[in-house]
Structure prediction request, 678 residues.
Amino acid sequence: MLKSGLRGKLYLGLFLLLFFFSVMIFSMVARIMREALLEENRNRGISIAANLAARAVEPILTIDFLRLKNLVDEITLLNNDISYGFILGTEGEILVHTFKGGFPVELKGANTVENHQQFSSRLLDTGEGLVYDYAAPVIIGEERIGTVRVGLLRTRVETAIKRLLRIAFLITSIVTLAAGFMGAVLANSVTRRIKLLQQSAEKVVRGDLDTHTAPSLRKNCWEVMHCDKARCPAYGNFYHRCWYLAGTLCANCIAGDYANKIETCRHCPMYKKSAGDEIQSLAESFDYMTLSLKKRMQELEDAEKTMREQRMLLKTILDATPEFVYLQDCQGKYQAVNRAFCHLLGKEEEEIIGRFDHDLYPPDRAGRNIEENKGVLRSGTPLEKQESIESGSGHRWCHVVRMPVRNPEGAISGILWSGRDITALKEMEARMVQARKMESVGQLAAGVAHEINTPLGIILGYAQLLLEEIPEDDQRHKDLEIINRQGKICRKIVADLLKFSRWSESTYSFFDPNEVIEEIVSVMEHTFNLDRVSIQCQLDPLLPGFFGDRDKFKQVLVNLLNNAHDAIGTDGRICITTFLDATSGDLVMTVSDTGQGIPREDQGRIFDPFFTTKPVDKGTGLGLSVSYGIIQEHGGRITVESPPGADHACDRTTNRGAAFLVHLPTVYRHEEQRIPKN
Prediction:
């Protein structure tokens, strides 16, 4: 619609313009010709009347009416357009006339002429048509002797005017049609090229930037300039003019794009030979625009691709780092997060992006975050601290940094929060504090044991001597047995203290863990059976040999069995299993029982020295602590489950008891442990 409308408007405008000028010219020509013919007719009538008046002087003076009649008839016969002619006397009487049916009396006074006038003319309606009436006085000397009247028909003048108007109309029409045809050809040429520009613009809108609007040159620049520089951007380019292309190698060109080189190119023979009109220049500029646009879009696509790659690389790096990272804008809206932070909150990335702190945290934590963000935005300095975070995986300690993010202008545009999980470090610090405390306790215990051991030996020695001298039925003998028995308990406590405070040298060798377990079970089974406590073994026959201290391994097993027996009391069962963990390659030994179990609040303290839930005379609280140290010495770990899981429970029908899991590295993973440790 737009293309045909433009062409139609051009055609209509051209037609109206030609029509207007044609009508104006025709009107002017018609008016000029009409005035010229009327003037000519007037002059002719005046001339005829004046000539007749001059020739009528003599016949009037001689009263020769026949001659006057001949004069009047002569002019009528010689001029077809003369309607009538007559001569009046001095008194206004009719001397001669040419009317055949009688003289019309009204005509005599229709046109008068004064003595001082040379002529008088009037347009009269005779009833048969319009007549130009001319009156001329007949004067001899200064005396007027008559009046000549001549009537010229207007028909001839009108006929001549119409004929001339037809000729003028024909000529004007021919000129108008010729001008219209030439204008249509020119308009069609303009609209065709504009249509081509429109089609090219539509292609560009659809994304096709390889469109070419300007016509191809008859001769290209390398042909005109006899150039063979194939490296020139214009060489072999049939669609873009060389003066639009940057980096051309012509000797006369200056470096730069169109805006820089065009003034130099205007003096180039190629430009003078190929430069076209405004529409061609527009088409060439359009082609150059599409070329530049294609280049810029390619640059943008390359830049966007690079940005996507950089974004993906940055995303990969952020997701791979174990630190928690997120970015907020100045209003607190989350802009970006990494995988570790999503895992910390237990949410997906889509659930966090675009949200605020109040959407993700409890009110107190959200308010604290907002206040800290405001402080960073005000001061422009990072905030660094350690804080406790309740995450989807439990309580975590983090070392966090809030850092302002600045835009290229230096203004703060957001806040980058990064946090490092230091829960393990905190636990390590706690263990180190506990270790230092235990070291101090061990040193204290060793000193106390040494101080107590000597007097305790003397007490037991004298008690045994007195037992030999006093009869058994004597009350003093019974009292001495109590002293001896309690002294032995004290000596055992002192021995445990010494074992806890000072490790003896380990002797490493290969041994079969199953063999050691069977040996210990055969020794302790009888004693346990007295209390109706059975021991069941499920030992892996393919268990590999273990490189460690055999006696200390026995000590660990004895401590675990004694603890299980004490937890059961009577009527129960103890299960020992061994297997090789295929995932970690560890040798795993479990000792589970059907006892009362360990309260959850005590499970974190059972390996601490001197911690025990047994009565005062039943244990010192050092057995599990010593076992824990032996397992650590061998590079392993010991954990407790109470109630035990289904895989480790000794009685799967009841949800009670406890299971101790001992993980020891095999010789295949820890051959460096062949070196004895103290």
Observations:
- The chain has 17 helices and 17 strands.
- The CA atoms of residues 378 and 460 lie 77 Å apart.
- The two ends are 100 Å apart (CA to CA).
- The longest helix spans residues 2-55.
